[in-house]
TrEMBL record:
InterPro entries: Cro/C1-type_HTH, Lambda_DNA-bd_dom_sf, MLTR_LBD. Signal peptide: none annotated. Pfam families: HTH_31, MLTR_LBD. Residues 14-86 form the HTH cro/C1-type domain. Coiled coil: none annotated. This is Helix-turn-helix protein. One of its GO terms (molecular function) is DNA binding. It comes from Azoarcus indigens. PANTHER family: BLL4672 PROTEIN, BLL4672 PROTEIN-RELATED.
Length: 260
């Protein structure tokens, strides 16, 4: 991958602007001789990132320079980029961050919003454990959210290992295949999440259905749509699913079931 795989002028401008906004004191460097320009010098960023000054200068100038993920991570650390800025840097050059920021804790506002929603609602993490859910969701999702779960309320595990949830979901084979395709898309963005990969390994060993769907290599976004359930007490129920990602924690998904 080279610098010309992104817009060179955009990449150079991005690096230059964030270099100029960082003071030597904030970067742990002495002020030194009088500076003609604000922020750090190019050679100082290169030093902090463990790179050649010439290499970094060429990068700011948009020249065709090989960009390894490790080098980009060094630049992101040197420039003290925020979570969003770091992600943008890797997006500019089409690289995957080798050490993405730690998963954010569940924002309190997100937890509160789940409890205020009238219909079934829940929050999934990168491994699709339900971090929070409201009473309507617990009442609907028998076999998943209605009872305490020793290993956590994991949606994927319950979908394939809970006979009660299998009976609840109308057209289970279609929904289960779609769920695996959606999980592949979501977990693919968080490959470093050990918990997500552990769920996959467990189900590959315990569920032939999951193995079949996983090996099909289907990938789909969690776009929502009509969801039908055959509830043991309330009969057939239909909802439209809406899924939102938190801006401050994109690995978390807020899922709401609205009246169809």
């Amino acid at each position: 991958m080279t610098a010309d795989s992104a817009l060179p002028t955009e990449l150079g401008a991005f690096l230059r602007r964030h270099r100029e906004r960082l003071s030597p004191a904030a970067a742990g460097l002495p002020e030194g001789r009088r500076r003609r320009t604000p922020g750090l010098r190019r050679e100082e960023v290169a030093q902090l990132a463990g790179l050649s000054p010439t290499w970094y200068t060429w990068l700011e100038q948009g020249r065709a320079v090989s960009l390894s993920p490790r080098a980009l991570a060094g630049i992101a650390d040197a420039l003290q980029l925020s979570r969003a800025e770091r992600s943008h840097l890797f997006d500019l050059v089409g690289r995957r961050d080798p050490a993405p920021p730690a998963v954010a804790e569940l924002p309190p506002e997100l937890l509160d919003s789940v409890q205020l929603i009238a219909g079934p609602a829940y929050v999934l993490d990168a491994a699709w454990n339900a971090l929070a859910f409201n009473g309507a969701a617990a009442e609907l999702f028998v076999g998943w959210l209605d009872t305490p779960a020793e290993g956590g309320h994991n949606l994927l595990r319950s979908m394939f290992l809970s006979p009660v949830l299998r009976d609840l979901v109308e057209d289970w084979p279609h929904r289960a295949a779609r769920l695996v395709a959606e999980f592949r898309a979501h977990s693919g963005r968080h490959r470093e999440n050990a918990a997500a990969m552990a769920v996959v390994e467990e189900l590959l060993a315990t569920s032939s259905d999951f193995q079949c769907y996983w090996e099909a290599q289907e990938v789909e976004e969690r776009e929502g749509g009509l969801r039908a359930f055959l509830h043991p007490r309330r009969g057939r129920l239909c909802y439209r699913q809406l899924t939102l990602a938190a801006a401050t924690a994109p690995e978390l998904l807020l899922v709401m079931l609205l009246p169809a």
